[in-house]
Every structure is written in C-alpha cells, then in structure tokens.
Design a protein that fits this description.
1678 residues, five-stranded antiparallel beta sheet, disordered N terminus
Length: 1678
C-alpha cells in the first residue's frame, strides 16, 4: 500500500525556497516573490550580456548585429512582461488573499477526506487480526503492592554494580593500626639528625627539613622487612626575588627523584639516610643556583660594577667581591673584601656555610649567615648584613679617634642607626641638626661626612677627602666648621631683628685701625634703618674646650664712601657711586652690661617666691638646668640683646641730638619703670608763633609730661615714634566717653626714617597744632561758661522777666562732642545731629573745618558743607574769637542752609540755548558765611542773607548791591519776584522778632552797613566777584560819603540792623531818595506800558530799549528784561476780582533789589519739593524752582513774540500777563499761584474772525499748552516749538488741533479702534532719528514745509508687568505746495519702517483741496502695527467690512471722525471743494446739526464716486438733501457720477428715506440717468423716487447752487425714516439716536426693495440697524 502523505497544519507555510507549492490538490501553480523575480531577471540579463560579450568577437559583423538585435528584442520583451507584472502587482494583494482563502478551504476538505479514508483502512485492513497480549499479573501485583521488584537476575549485580566501600569505622580502625606500625618502625630504625622533625597522621609519616624539602612515607604491611613506600616529595627551596612565585623544580624532575629514592629504599639498611642525602644534595645545589641567579640580576639592575662574581662552582660554592674601589685605594688589602657561600667540605649533611675575607668575628659571622638560613633566600640580604657589619667596624674605630680629639669635658660621639651613622658633636651647646654625621657608603665603603641642617657647606668636601686619605687635616677642618656654624647661628639669631649678618663688608680703613687686631673669624652686623653703624662679633675657641666658642662684641661707626674720596677730609667727596664703607671709631661692648641692664630679665623667680613678693635669686652655675632660662642652642642671647638694644636706642639717641639742635631740651633715652621699654622725655617745648602770653602760661601749666617711645603698631611691621602729651585741667567738658577724668592724653605717631629732621619738624608742627587750637578753645570755654552762668541767672530771675522767648545762648547753640587737643568736634542743630571738626593745619597756618552728620539712619550730608571755605575764613580772620563766631554762625544759618540743601541737583539737557551741555537748574554759590547766591540756569540770581532770630532776607541778585539801579552783566532781573516773595511774608513773626531784637538791642546811631552780629571780611564787596561797583566815582558806592549811601545796603546787613529806625517797612519799601529811575537809567523796556495796565508812577510813559552792550545778549537775541512788578497779576483772580489782599508794593524797576525778609518756615516752604504735573506724570519741584522756571518760560515767550512778524503784542488786561495777537487769535499768558504755581494760556478769536474758531478747538490748544510747555524741567525749546505751532496757517493749525485732540481727549471708541496712541513731541528725545540734538526744538517752519515729531505707542496689548509697549518716533514733514505728508528721512539711509509708514500714509483718502496732515496721521493710527522691537510691521489694508474704503485703498474706522469738531475742509463758497469748483454732489444739512459743526456756507462736499462698491452706499437720513450744480448741467453731472456706481443690482442700492429732496435739477434731468443704471436699480412708479408732499424744504446751495422744485417721497413699502437726524463731526457724519434705524416695514416692500445681503441692512457694525452705520460714516467722513 502506497504511503499516504503526511498532513500539514493549516497555519504553517511552506518553506522550500523561493518557489512555494501550495499542494497537489489545489491544482495551482507555484508562487514566487516579486523581488526574487526581479533579481532573477536582472541576473539573467547580465549573464546573457556577458555571454554575448564573449561570443561576439569571434563572429562577423552581420552576425554580431543579428545577435545584438535578438538580445535587445528578447530583453525588451522580458522587461515589458515584468512591467506588466509590476503594474498588476499593485492589485495582487486582493487576488492573493482570495487564493489563500481557496487554498485553506481546499486543504480542510482534503483533511476531512484523508481522515475518513484512514479510518476506513484501519478498520478493514490493519485491525482485522489485531490481538492484546497476556498481562504479567504477578509482577504488576508485587510492584503495585510492595513498591519493589525482587525477581531480577543476579547477573546484573555481579557484572554491573560496583562492590560496596568499607565503612568509616573500618577505615578509622585500619589507619590507626597502620600508624602504630609506622611508629614502631621509626622507633626500631636509625634516623638522620636533620629528619628528627616528623608528623604521623592518616597512615603516613611526614619528614620536614626547614628551607630544603618535605617527604611523606608509609608502610604496606606490618612485616619487619616491608620496605618504605615513598608517597610524596615537596621541595621547599624558593626564589622570592627573581622567581616570580613559580616553582623552581619541574614535576618531572620531582617524579625522577621520586623513582630514584624509591629504588634506593629497596633492600637498603639505612633507607632514611639515603633519602635525606639525595634530597639534601639536590636542595643545596638548588640554593646555590638561586643565589647565583640573584647575583646576576643585581649586576644587571643596580649594583653594576660595585660587586663581581669571582667564582661559581655548580653545586659546590659561589664567591663574590664588594667595595672594590676601597680595595683599589688601599694597597694593603690584597684579597679585598670577599664573600663565599659553599657546601661544608667536611660534613656535607650540614647547611650551606658563609666565609668572609677579611674574616669577621664569630658573632658577626653568625649574624650574616642568618640571611641564607631563613625562609627568604636572598643574596642581597646577605650582602647588606655583611656591609652593615663592615661599616659598624670602621665607624667604631673612627669614634675612638674622635672622642680623644674632642676632649674629656665634651659630649661623646654616638654610633647608631642602620645603616650605621656616627654623630660627632663638634660645637657646644649641642644642637642635633648641627652635629657632624659620618657614615659609610654601602656601595664603595667611603666615609661620608654631612651636617643635616646645612646642605651647602663648602667644608664638607674637604673634610670627606681628609677622612678617607689624609687624616692629619681633620682637626683643622673641624675647627673651621665650628666657626662656620657660629656664623650660621648668628644669622638665625638675627632673623627676627632688623639687622643682617655679613661675613665680609667693603670696608676701607688704615693699617693702624683697631680692626686689624681682630681675628679672621668674625661676622659684621648691619642695621636696616641705621646704615651708619655696624656691630662686629668675633669668635675664638675656648682653651681646653675646643667645642665651646667665645664671643666678643664691637660697635663701629661707618660712613658711605667711594674709592676716590679723600680719607683725611670728609668734605671732599666725588660723584662716584658710594659702594664702600669707611671705618671710623671701634668700641668694644661689654656683653655683661648689655644683658644685665634694668630692662633685661636674666634671673629666674621661683613660683613660691613669686607668690611671696617676687624676690630675685641670682642664678648660680651649679644650679640645675631645669631652673635656667631655656633658649634654643642656635640662639646667641648676647648678640641678640646687643643688636636689639642698639637698634632700639639708636633712633631715640639720634632724635635726642636733633631735638637739642632745635632747642628742644630732653633727658635723653631712659629706661621706663619696670623695664617696659626706653623713652625720651621732653623738658621744654618752644612756644608757637602768634600765641598770647596767657595761652602759653596756661598750656605749660596744664602740660604734665611729654615723652617719646618706640612702638610697633598692631598689624604693622614697621616701628614708629609714639609721642604722648599728658594734660590736666581740660578747658571744656566733652561728651566723649574716652575724654572723661582729670587727665587727658594726646597721642601722635611718626615713622622711624633716616631723615630725622623731618621727624623733628613733624613734632614741632603737632605742638603748634595743639597750641593754636588750645588758644581758640580757651576763649570759647570762657564764653561757654559765661553763657551757662547767664542761663542759670536768667532761670533764677525768670519770674520777673517778660513772657517773650529769649534767644538761645552759646551753650544751647552747640555742644562739645569731642576735644582731644588735636581737633575739636562741635555738635549743633535742633537735635545736635550735625557736627563740625575744627583742626589746625600747620603747613597752611590756618584752621580747617570738616562737616558731617551723626545719628542712626543718617544719610544726608551736612548743609554747611557748601559753606566750608567761607566758614574757614571766618575762623581764621576772627582770631581767638573765631570759634565763638563759628558756633553762632552755625546755629543761625543751619535752618536756611538745610532748606537750600533740598534744592534739586539734577542735571538737565536742553534747558538753555546751549547744545549738548547739561546744566543744573539751581546752583548754590556761597558768598560769605551768611550770604548765599542761588543761580537759576546762569540767568537769574537770588541773594539769600541768613539773619539772626530765624529770618532770611531775599533779594534779586541781578541788581548791584551798591546801587539798585545798576544791573550785573551776568544776570537778568526776575520779573514778579517781589510779589512772589510777599506772599510768604509772615508779618506777625517778623514784628515779634523785631520787637524782641529792639528790646534786647536798642537802636544806635550807626550806619546801616554794619552787621548785626560779627561777620568776617569776606562779606565785603570785593568778595562778590561780579557784584562790584561800576565806577569808583559813583555816589552810591559804600566808599563814597554821599548821604544816599547811608540808606541802602552794603552786602547783606543794611536791611536788618534796626528796621524801625529806618522809617519804612522792609516788606513794602518806599521809593528811596534819589533812586527813582530816569529814562537813561532804565536799561530795558518796561512792559508795563505795553500790556500790564499798571505803569510805574515814577515813569509812566517810558518804553526805552536797552543800550547796546549793557547786557550780554542771549543766543536767541538781546535780553529784554521788563523792570516791573507783576504783583497785580497775582493779587487778582481770573475774573478781575481781588482774591488776596497784600501790602501795596512800589512799582519800580528795582523793587526786587530791596530784600524781602522771610521766616525760616516760609523759606523751607519755598525750598521744599512739592508734587508738580509733568504732562501725564508728576515730579517733585520746589516752589522757588517752579516760579523761576515759569518766569523763564514767560520771558522767553515774550522774546519770541517781539521778534515775530506775524504775532504782535498788543495792550494787556491783567498785570503780569503777556498778550499777543496772531492772525485770528488773541493769546494771553497768565500766572496762577493756587493751588500751585502754574502758567496758563488763554485763547480768544479776534472779533472779526469769531466764526472761524470754536470753543472746543481753543480749549484743546490751551490744554495742549498747559500739558506740554509749562512743566518741569521748563525747557525753552518747548516754548519755541509751541510758538512755531502758533505760526502755522489756519487750516494746518486746525489739523494739528485735531491731532492734539486724539492725544489729549480721545473717546473710548477711538481708543478701541486705534492701534497706536499719538504723542506730539516739542523737543527732540534722545531716542529716534537724531535730526536735531537731544532736547532741541523740533517743530520747524521753513518756507512751504513744516517739520514736527510724533511718537506712536502701541495700545490695546496685553503686556507683562514692568514692560513698556513698543513705540516709534516719526519725523513728519508737511509740504503745503504739494499737500503731502511724509517721513523726514535722510537720502543715504534706507529704513524699512519709514518705508512702511510712507506707504500707509499714501493710502490715506485726501479730498481735493483738503489738507493731508490729519488724514495721514489718522491712517497711521488705525493701520500701523508695531512689533515688539518698535519697528513697523507690514500689514494689508483693513477689509471692507471693517471700515470705509478710501479712493486709494486705505481704510479708516468711522469713529475717528470726531463728533466734537467739524472738519476745517468742508465745502464753502470761498474755498475749493464747493460746487463751483469741483463737480460732485453737495449735501445740505438741516437744523438737526449743531451750529458749531457747519462750515460757513452750511454745506458739506462729498463725492458720489466713492459709492462704487456694493454695500457701501450710505443711507441719507431724514432732513438731508442734495444740492446739485447749475441748471442745464445737472443731468450730465448726475449721469457721470451715478453711472460710476456700476451694476449694483436690485440689492446694491440702499433705499432713501422719506424727506430726501433733490434740488437744483429739472424734472427731466433725473429720469434718464436713473433709468440708464445697469441692473434696474430704480424704476419710476409706485416703488421708485417720486416727488410729493412730505418732503423737507431744501436750503440754498450758495452761489452756483440750484434750489429744489419738488421733494421726493418713497412709495408704499418704501423708505420711511423715524425720528432722529444726522450729525456731522469733524470730517464725517454719524447717525444720531435712532437716525439710522428703519421704521416698521421700512425694509420690506414690493419689487426692487432692499433686502438683507452682504454688508446690507442687517444688524451689526456697518449695517442699518443699531450703532453707527459704517456705510454712512465712511461716506461722509471724507
């Protein structure tokens, strides 16, 4: 039967190669991978090509061509089929899935069929005769019941299984019996003595011979003749140095020895002896071999030629030689130093033996042999041990020689260490590091001397040579070495002293000089700070004790000299370098006296004696060493003490001599009590120049002592002279904690230098400082005591005194904070936080002052710092009263100067007409101790006199102090200063102080020029610089005896001495006699006659220009300073009523020259900063700075008005104001003092041009002025720019006002729709295009062009905190000729941002004859987008639904047409843009529009041509009508304009509301144009445009206009308007409430009515419902 095929699983795939056969039952062909197929085709093509290339060369040309064509055709057909197959393979996945499904189903069907056939065959063929066998029931029962089967055959056990081992007990019994047999055998036989060490265990005996071998033996039975059985051999010889841990004997060698010994154990009477001899001989030979290999290794690596192998007999001996160099130097040593390792020739059984040549003692030899009898076999250790013994022997011999030479009393030499070292103490006292160490070189055997502490001793090499060759020189060399060590000890002793030891010095001396008698062993010691002195230390050995060195000290005087100097005459010197020293006197020092003086402690005090009182016991030589003062052995106390004493006393000795030369007598150097140091006491000091006899007497009486010491300050290495003055009876009581008690000490320090004369000068200068300050303090202390006594007496009699407060006394004004005789510190002020330090400068011979503040949290500077020079002059010129005057002046001037210190010190750029020069607004210039000039921008000047009793006097510093009618050239009078200061006059306080002053000091017939309290000469006119008398013959000069000079001030004191006696009030001074100005005296035009309205009574008609050259002209023109008093302007309110009542002030040019007296509180009010508006921000400005700044602005504006041709000043109405006239406006500048000092501008149209300006326009311009111009820091260039704006033409100015309105008063809707906010810049900021310098004016009018700057800031952005929005500076230029507004850009710079800005402005819709300024700016605000970096970002125009499209493509939101201001460009009969000038349609406004929003003609010009886009046709509200052109041309005009609307269609035209009337047209003129529109926009009929009742009567169209004949009314379903009209804003129209909303049914109707569409009538922005209609607003905002 044929075998049936094996079934395969359903899921398995075939894997027989690239071709897969699905099965024989499927009938399908085989499959192949597409990639494999492509590979086969490529391989076939390539192989055919190769075959063709091989065959073609052998064929003819025709056959070649035929074969090539056939190959190409065959290949082409193959690849065509492949291409088709590939294209088909794109959809082969579906076919493949179907094939797999069919194959699976067919396979399952085959399996079912195969299973049925198999079962059939089994049933009918295979199982017909099948039978089961009989079961082995007994075996199964036994296995299942017992778990085992015992009926297997025995053969299995016998032939297969191993026999069972013996048990542990049997094994133990057997080994125990075997050990007993071995022990019996060992006892009964003879053993070698080296194998006595044995161990029996585990049935064997193990013999061990140390360092050689280990052998194990056993017996195989208990028979006495049974031989030993060798079990194991282990060789113990190792080479741990060169063997690298490897075994020295190979296992085959061990096996050979094992067989050899086993063979000799058979039938041998002494088997163990034989075993030992064989192994011992082998191990000794092995040891010799190891030593030989190690020696060769040493020769190769380290020892080289120092050792040599003399002989090596293998297995017998090894001979080495060492110290071969020593052998060569010593001829007596014939054999040299040898070492032999050999086998004992007499007893080979012994270990290896060592022989030494020359021989060593038995003990030393035994020590050396241990190196080879240890577990570490090493030839190097043997050599080291041998050389160590040799070294020790040589040094022991040398030790005996040295001990005999050093003497009996000297310390003995010591031999110790490994390698052995001989310690020779050559110097006493002994220092271990200074001992001479002698050792032996282990390689060569040479003696090596060495001193551990000094490696560079030059005597060591000579000493080494002497020790090894000529020992006769050793004694001399050791002696020189002692002296050399003493020099080194001297250097170490001086290492912490200011001196240096030298073995030689370049000395020059005669042959007879005592220096020649000194020995050669000496050292020279020079001082660092005293080069003229030298200490010489001479050394010599003590007799009988060569190890002890004696010292002799000498002191020598030297001098720097050159080789060419005359030795006999010191005055004769050459210019050569002084590189030598000439020796002079030589003195021997007694070391005992130096070391046992009163300041030297050499005695020891016992602890018990110290407790009993410190009795001293002289130190005896026999005392134990523990009681002596212990010092290091290298320290030479005598040398150190002598050098230190000399260095310490030399400066004082030299200083003492120099002081005596200057007549300063002293005691010379002395030792202080207790030996604390050396000092120099001064007996008498010279008196300083300028001291009074009383001061000298008091100073010498109170000076207890003056002494000079040598000190070393902490953290400072150099020494100084410390000068101490001890005083008693201090004249003043100090508050300092360290300046209490009856005695005071003053300390001074001076550097110890070679130039002692400078030190003497410094000492005398400091004594002068003490003397001068003491004289000043004595007078101050007397006044201070008197003031305190006066206070006490006033307190006792206070009950009968008046109730008025008394002025403060000197003790209440100041307090003595510190007085240390070098300086004095006075504290003053309300809380005594301010202080001044008074010192005397000896070089300048004058007192100096230093100011400061104290207290917790004090950060401010002392206000008197600016007055430092003036106060110093006060102290120096007043003599002994200077300190009293200083204290009084400090008290009276503290509050005024504190107020002045509050003035702002900030620098500002561009505040005056100097480019790039920042200046301070207020500069304080001290003139005298009580006068200060406050200069404002180098133009205005205020003189402030600080008076007693809490008053200050302020006057205009521009007037001369000697003649009030004269001006100082550097300054200009301040307009209105007198009236300004009068507001702060407190009459009650001033009168109270006057009465009190008059009670205390009654009037005296003295001139007014005298000061009420002492002032220095600095207050004289010569100190004022520019404020000097003009000419010497002037009758008003102080030097002139003219009587008028008695009635005016001199400096600052003439108005405060006794005001009552002068006959007039200072706050309101009358005309001084002889001081009324004449026309010749007035240097400037008085503006009172021009526009003040209150002329001076003395000269009401004068209006004289200043003479040329009297005042320095400013950069903008000559100074025009009106000599008037603007008090009337300050006394009246805006309405002319009196709001403030004050004293009547004289209206004279020099009224401000008269000082105004204020209290300290009022002066603080003037100088204290207050909040001031700076446009959108606020800042702190003091009142006086506000006043001067506004006066400065007002004056500059007045100058601009005078130099202008267009603006001309006219008569004013209010005093202090400035009024001028521009073409159609009157400008009036007013000063307001409440609530803060400010400046305002009032604008009113002239009567003939009232209708051209509205109130809102003028209010915007006024607010722009108040926000931009009179604000800190009060820049004149801002005034200049605003003045330029006022000069703009009217139409341009109105556009500018609209821009200002967007900046100042934008509506919420405008803010929401504008992308940027606008800021008009009047001065050039530091950022942006630098067309002008920073701070310069940037509003420029040049012919037909106007330049101005706008700053655009991005709005409506969500920015992080503390982040500024992006902004952009734009310089714009408007050209009136071309009516263009563009960026002012340099030609050589291409700025992308400016290009984008110009592009946006070019899209602005500018109507004909309309100014382009405001439309371009409005276009920028709506469409300019700024990036984060401030640069413009290009953006497309706004879409149609967001705004009204312009003719050039730009869009503007309708709300930017201002609802408050009318457009200045509306059509009028007299301006371009009316119907007479431009064809178009005019819309006449009904009375629903406000009066201020209609132009002169009452019409608004629009252009219907803008209605060219669907959805953009505006709906005209009720009450508006069209005014057409002249009759006869209306049809043409309408046709031209209406046809441009294009095919709008039925839904394109928005319905017109009821009441709209077309005027100026004939009935026939409307029909044809209306019917000619494309798309049937309007048809006559019930739903068309018909005239009828209900229309609104039209208004006249002006000249050239046509009045309407009939109205138009919508038919049924047409357009009916609800209540509400249309309002025209600036540039556009906005629907009123409900004006643009259709009524019920207005949006519905018959055919042709309007229905919702894109941009149509539905709600939302731009539709006809709710809010502002974007279509209507976009139509009329142009």
């Amino acid at each position: 039967m044929a075998p049936t095929p094996t079934p395969a699983p359903l899921e398995s795939g075939s894997g027989g190669g690239p071709m897969e056969t699905v099965g024989s039952m499927g009938g399908q062909m085989g499959t192949i991978s597409l990639g494999v197929l492509i590979q086969y085709i490529n391989q076939r093509t390539y192989s055919d090509l190769l075959n063709l290339a091989e065959i073609l060369p052998r064929k003819s040309d025709l056959e070649k061509k035929i074969d090539i064509v056939q190959y190409a055709q065959r290949t082409r057909q193959l690849y065509v089929r492949l291409l088709a197959l590939v294209k088909w393979a794109a959809s082969a996945s579906k076919v493949d899935k179907c094939c797999h499904i069919m194959a699976l189903l067919e396979k399952q069907n085959n399996l079912f069929t195969y299973t049925a056939d198999k079962l059939y065959h089994m049933t009918k063929e295979n199982l017909v005769c099948a039978r089961l066998p009989h079961f082995h029931i007994p075996a199964a029962v036994e296995t299942l019941t017992t778990g085992s089967y015992d009926r297997l055959p025995m053969t299995i056990r016998q032939r297969i299984l191993p026999p069972e081992p013996i048990t542990a007990l049997e094994r133990k019994q057997t080994l125990t019996r075997l050990e007993q047999i071995i022990q019996h055998r060992l006892v009964t036989t003879e053993l070698p003595p080296q194998m006595r060490t044995s161990r029996i265990e585990n049935g064997r005996v193990k013999f061990t011979v140390e360092h050689e071998f280990e052998v194990s033996l056993t017996l195989m039975g208990d028979n006495i003749t049974e031989p030993w059985r060798l079990l194991e051999i282990e060789i113990l010889v190792e080479d741990k140095e060169t063997g690298d841990g490897k075994a020295l004997v190979h296992r085959r060698q061990v096996l050979f020895i094992h067989h050899l010994i086993q063979s000799r154990l058979q039938e041998n009477p002494k088997p163990l002896h034989e075993t030992y001899m064989v192994l011992h001989s082998f191990c000794q030979a092995l040891q010799l071999e190891v030593l030989f290999v190690q020696t060769q290794k040493l020769l190769e690596d380290r020892l080289d030629y120092h050792i040599r192998i003399e002989e090596y007999l293998q297995g017998r001996s090894l001979t080495l030689t060492y110290w071969r160099e020593l052998t060569q130097r010593d001829p007596s040593a014939q054999l040299g130093y040898r070492l032999t390792v050999q086998v004992d020739p007499t007893e080979p059984s012994k270990p290896l033996m060592v022989l030494h040549t020359p021989s060593l003692g038995s003990k030393e030899s035994e020590i050396a042999e241990r190196a080879i009898r240890s577990d570490h076999l090493s030839i190097e250790r043997l050599l080291v041990h041998t050389i160590y013994l040799r070294t020790k022997i040589r040094l022991s011999e040398l030790k005996q020689e040295m001990d005999s030479k050093l003497g009996n009393d000297a310390e003995k030499c010591q031999l110790s260490g490994s390698p052995a070292v001989l310690h020779v103490p050559i110097l006493q006292p002994n220092l271990r590091s200074e001992q001479l160490l002698i050792t032996v070189d282990t390689h060569t055997g040479v003696l090596l001397p060495h001193i551990p502490q000094y490696d560079n001793c030059h005597l060591i090499s000579d000493l080494q040579s002497a020790l090894n060759h000529d020992k006769s020189k050793v004694d001399d060399l050791i002696s020189e070495l002692r002296y050399w060590l003493m020099v080194r000890r001297t250097e170490k002793t001086l290492q912490h002293l200011p001196a240096t030891a030298h073995e030689r010095l370049p000395l020059m001396y005669f042959a007879t000089h005592p220096l020649n008698s000194l020995g050669k062993h000496k050292v020279f010691i020079t001082f660092h700070k005293h080069p003229g002195y030298v200490v010489i230390v001479e050394f010599c050995e003590k007799e009988g004790g060569p190890c002890e060195i004696e010292q002799s000290l000498y002191f020598m005087v030297v001098k720097q000299a050159s080789i060419e100097d005359n030795p006999n005459d010191d005055t004769v010197q050459t210019s050569l370098p002084k590189s030598y020293m000439r020796a002079y006197d030589l003195v021997k020092l007694d070391s005992f006296v130096c070391t046992h003086g009163p300041s030297t402690k050499v005695d020891v005090i016992e602890p018990g004696e110290r407790a009993l009182g410190g009795k001293r016991k002289l130190q005896q030589r026999a005392e134990p060493a523990s009681k002596r003062v212990k010092v290091p052995a290298y320290f030479l106390p005598d040398v150190a003490q002598c050098v230190a004493m000399s260095d310490m006393k030399l400066p004082l000795t030299h200083l003492s001599l120099k002081l005596r030369e200057r007549n300063v007598f002293n005691t010379g150097e002395q030792v202080e009590e207790g030996g604390m140091g050396v000092l120099l006491r001064l007996i008498d000091l010279p008196s300083a120049e300028g001291l009074s006899a009383d001061t000298v007497t008091a100073l010498r009486k109170n000076l207890l002592s003056s002494s000079i010491r040598i000190q070393v300050p902490q953290f400072k290495g150099s020494r100084v002279f410390g000068m101490e003055y001890l005083f008693t009876n201090c004249p003043v009581t100090s508050q300092h904690s360290r300046e209490q008690g009856p005695r005071r000490a003053a300390y001074f320090t001076y550097e110890v230098t070679e130039n002692v004369n400078s030190t003497v000068d410094a000492i005398l200068a400091d004594w002068t400082v003490i003397s001068q300050l003491y004289q000043l303090v004595l007078t101050f202390a007397a006044h201070l005591s008197a003031s305190r006594a006066g206070v006490e007496s006033a307190g006792s009699s206070s009950s009968c005194s008046s109730s008025g407060a008394n002025p403060k006394t000197l003790s209440e004004m100041v307090r003595v904070k510190s007085f240390n005789y070098k300086s004095m510190t006075l504290a003053y002020g309300p809380s005594y936080d301010a202080f001044v330090i008074i010192r005397y400068n000896a070089e300048k011979k004058a007192f100096t002052l230093s100011f400061g503040m104290s207290g917790e949290g004090v950060w401010a500077t002392n206000p008197h710092t600016v007055m430092q020079d003036q106060l110093q002059d006060l102290v120096n010129h007043r003599g002994h009263m200077g300190l009293v005057d200083l204290a009084t002046t400090l008290h009276h001037t503290y509050q005024p100067l504190l107020a002045i210190s509050k003035l702002s010190p900030t620098l500002h750029l561009g505040v005056i007409d100097k480019r790039q020069h920042p200046i301070k607004n207020l500069t304080v210039l001290p003139q005298s101790p009580t006068r200060v000039s406050i200069v404002y921008r180098n133009i205005y000047c205020l003189n402030v006199d600080m008076l007693p009793n809490g008053l200050v006097a302020i006057r205009d510093g521009a007037f001369s102090s000697f003649e009030t009618s004269k001006l100082i050239e550097e300054f200009i009078p301040v307009q209105g200063l007198k009236a300004f200061l009068s507001k702060y006059v407190d009459e009650t306080a001033i009168n109270r102080r006057r009465s009190q002053s008059e009670d205390d000091n009654p009037p005296t017939p003295i001139p007014l020029d005298d000061n009420p309290w002492p002032t220095p000469k600095a207050a004289s006119p010569a100190r004022h610089g520019p404020m000097t008398p003009p000419i010497s013959s002037n009758p008003h000069t102080p030097a002139s005896p003219h009587p008028v000079g008695m009635s005016q001030t001199s400096g600052h004191g003439g108005f405060v001495s006794s005001p009552v006696t002068s006959g007039f009030s200072l706050a309101s001074p009358p005309s001084l006699p002889g001081m009324n100005p004449s026309p010749a005296m007035l240097p400037h035009q008085s503006p009172s006659s021009g526009f003040l309205g209150a002329n001076s009574p003395s000269a009401p008609q004068y209006n004289v220009a200043s003479p040329v050259g009297f005042l320095a002209p400013s950069p903008l023109g000559p100074h025009s300073v009106p000599m008037h008093s603007p008090a009337s302007a300050l006394m009246q309110g805006p309405a002319g009523g009196a709001t403030y009542t004050s004293r009547v002030l004289p209206n004279k040019p020099y009224a401000a020259a008269v000082p105004t007296v204020l209290t300290h509180d009022a002066f603080h009010t003037l100088c204290s900063p207050v909040q001031v508006d700076e446009g959108s921000d606020t800042s702190l400005q003091c009142v006086v700075e506000q006043f001067l700044g506004l006066t400065y602005i007002k004056r500059h504006f007045q100058q601009l008005c005078k130099s202008c041709e267009v603006i001309k000043p006219v008569g004013g109405f209010e005093p202090g104001s400035i009024q001028c006239k521009i073409e159609t406006l009157c400008c009036q500048m007013l000063v307001h003092s409440t609530p803060s000092y400010s400046l305002s501008l009032k604008l009113q149209p002239v009567p003939e041009h009232v209708d051209q300006w509205t109130t809102e326009e003028l209010q915007v311009l006024e607010k722009f002025f108040s926000v931009k111009v009179p604000i800190p820091p009060y820049r004149l260039y801002a005034v200049h720019s605003f003045y330029s704006i006022l000069r703009f033409p009217v139409r341009v100015l109105k556009d500018c006002i609209r821009i200002m309105q967007l900046e100042l008063m934008p509506t919420p809707q405008q803010q929401q729709q504008m992308k940027c906010s606008v800021h008009w810049c009047l001065t050039n900021p530091p950022i942006g295009p630098q067309i002008a310098p920073p701070g310069h004016y940037i509003v420029v009018v040049s012919r037909s062009k106007i330049l101005f700057f706008l700053q655009l800031t991005r709005t409506n952005l969500q920015l992080p905190p503390d982040t500024e929005p992006p902004n952009l500076m734009l310089p714009l230029v408007y050209d009136s000729n071309s009516n263009k507004t563009q960026i002012a850009e340099r030609r050589d710079q291409g700025n992308v941002t400016f290009q984008i800005v110009n592009e946006i402005m070019s899209r602005a819709a500018v109507q004909p004859n309309e100014i382009s300024l405001f439309p371009c700016v409005r276009e920028l605000l709506c469409n300019l987008t700024l990036g984060p970096d401030g640069n413009a970002v290009a953006a497309p125009p706004t879409s149609v639904g967001q705004g009204t499209p312009t003719s050039s493509g730009g869009t503007v939101p309708p709300s930017l047409a201002s609802p408050h201001l009318t457009s200045p460009h509306m059509g009028s009969p007299l301006t371009p843009g009316s119907s007479a000038a431009t064809p178009g349609v005019q819309v006449s406004m009904t009375p629903t529009m406000s009066q201020g929003m209609i132009s002169t003609s009452g019409t608004v010009t629009t252009n219907v041509s803008t209605l060219s886009t669907p959805g953009m046709v505006s709906t005209l509200s009720s009450g508006s009508h069209f005014t057409g052109p002249k009759q006869g041309t209306a049809a043409g005009h309408m046709q031209q304009t209406m046809t441009t609307m294009g095919p709008l269609g039925p839904q394109g035209m928005q319905p017109m509301q009821s009441g709209m009337t077309m005027t100026g047209m004939q009935p026939g003129h409307m029909q044809q144009p209306m019917t000619s529109m494309a798309g049937g926009m309007m048809q006559p009929g019930a739903h068309g445009m018909q005239g009828g009742p209900g229309g609104v009567q039209t208004m006249s169209g002006g000249p050239g206009g046509i009045q309407g004949m009939s109205a138009m009314q919508g038919g049924p379903g047409g357009m009916q308007g609800v209540s509400g009209g249309m309002q025209v804003g600036p540039g556009g129209m906005q629907g009123g409430p409900g004006g643009m909303q259709g009524g019920p049914g207005s949006m519905q109707g018959g055919p042709g009515s309007m229905q919702g569409g894109p941009g149509g009538m539905q709600g939302g922005p731009g539709s006809m419902q709710g809010g502002f209609g974007s279509g209507m607003m976009g139509q009329f905002n142009r």
